Amino acid sequence: MEPKTPSESRTLMTDMVLPSETNPLNNLFGGELLARMDRAASIAARRHSRRITVTASVNHVAFNQAVPVGSVVTVEAAVSRAFRTSMEVFIDVWMEDRFNGEKSKVNEAIYTFVAVDDSGKPTTVPELKPETDLEIQRFEAALRRKQLSLVLAGKMKPKDATELKALFMD
Predict the structure, then answer these.
(1) Predicted TM-score (pTM) of this structure
(2) Contact status, residue 109 vs residue 60, Cβ threshold 8 Å
């Protein structure tokens, strides 16, 4: 399997926030944004693996800014690291200012997807070769996030989490 770059999985989804997708404050429902992020991340994971992918976990979500009705929202997703059968997908959410067109980052998330074969059994995915400084930073941090998740789930002993220990040791 040939390694792939994050740009090969990059997915952009742009849409407008409609009144039926908002809460009583006329801001986008968090669940609606989660669904949009999940769809974009799923496409990114599929582009990387060329397999059916399933959401394994939502590792991090930050709702940093409300997204008002009528806003143009772009969800950008790309694989940030590939493991044996799983992929971490980093998602950035951008909003265009309705009056001047300037874009600002309003939310972000990190999802994990698993590639599966036609019978639903996990299957291997290509390696990821980051290219830009941001891609390298996200790639390196992904292993720490995975180890932390495994430790918290009781699937890895803290003493075996070498990447996490390196943060605290010289």
Answers:
(1) 0.91
(2) yes
DSSP 8-state class, residue 18 = P
The total number of residues written for the chain in this structure: 170
**Can you give the residue ranges of every domain in the chain?**
6-130
Q: Which residues lie below 8 Å from residue 120, measured CB to CB, with a gap of 6+?
A: none
Q: Write out pLDDT tens, residues 76-120.
A: 999 999 999 999 999 999 999 878 889 999 999 999 999 999 999
Instruction: Enter the CATH code of domain 6-130.
Output: 3.10.129.10
Give the residues across from 63 on adjacent strands. Answer: 107
Encoded amino acid at 115, one letter: A
Phi and psi for 80 in degrees, rounded to 5? Answer: -100, -20
Task: Quickly tell me which residue has 């430790």 as its tokens.
Answer: 151
